Structure formats: structure tokens, C-alpha cells
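Look over both lines:
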Amino acid sequence: MTSVPKRYLTPEEYLAQERRAEYKREYFKGEIFAMAGASREHNLIAGNLSRELGNQLRDRPCEVYQSDMRVKVSSTGLYTYPDVVVVCGEPRFEDAEADTLLNPTVLFEVLSETTENYDRGKKFEHYRALPSLQEYVLVAQEKCHVEQFTRQPGNRWLLWETDDLEGTLNLPSIGCELKLTDVYAKVTYAAPPSQ
């Protein structure tokens, strides 16, 4: 019995398919990976982030995109869909379709059980290869917890984290401050089981 060889797509083939697809897929080294749907909490948090950032950046030369803006890490070949993307200055796109951003300034990922390890590990490794990226923010959805990685001189990254709902996330690269009460607005969590 012979096995059918796996077919790998070129980036051009992926983009042609992706632009017609009914659902989003990531691409890396010739393979495509379907993306799962998101929970209510995930959608609320991503929407809150997008709205708060959009309001603060409305009159500045920055744009905010929510989950449908594809980002390409040119040096590694990863095509992915961050939950929220901010680009300040002139956005650069892969081609005239203007649907694949090359120069994000800040990326946000809302963590889920199935993506948390990838978002913290391999995906962040790819993201660090983006010369334009200044901050990477991970937002938990099952509890109030935010981790912010900020690029430092020498391509080092500084971690700041909090679980204080009364705290504020400062984003110096884009001059924004987000109150965590706004980030987690309308998100409710089940009470822990009683002992």
C-alpha cells in the first residue's frame, strides 16, 4: 500500500485560497492550520481592547484591527491572525489586497486553553522576529491576568504582568493606557467551587 504524499502550498496558493475561504487558517512552511472559534469571554475581551484602543488612537496616525487582519512574519514565513493589532505610522502590506500586514507595532492575543502554549511559545518566537513589533500583550480570558512584553534595546524583552482588575496597562509604544476594568468589561467568571 502506498501513501499519498502530503501537498504543501506556496504562500501564493495559500493567499489565493484564504481570500476565498469561509473561515480563517494560519499558514507556515507550506501547511495550513484551521483556527477554532472563540468563546463569549474571548470575543468580549477582544472587542473591548479594539474599542478602547480605537477610541484613544482615533485622531492619531495609528490603525487598530481586530482578528480579521492577517499578519505575516516575513523572516519566518508565518501568516497568522492576532486577536487585536495596532500599527502606527504607514501600514505596509504584502500586496495590493491590503489584507496582510507586515509592520504591526503592538499585538494582542486573548489566551484560551487550546492556544495558550502556542501564543506564549512558538508564536511569540515568530513575533519577536518582526522588527516593527514593540509590544506583545497576552490577556487571559478565564480570569483577570495580563502579561505585557516590551522590546528593550539589544532586542531584549521586558515582562510586566498583573492580575489587579483595578490596574492599568500602559502601552508606551503607542501612548495608550487601558484600564483593566475596561478590558474585562461585561466579562463574568464562575465562582470557584466551595470547599
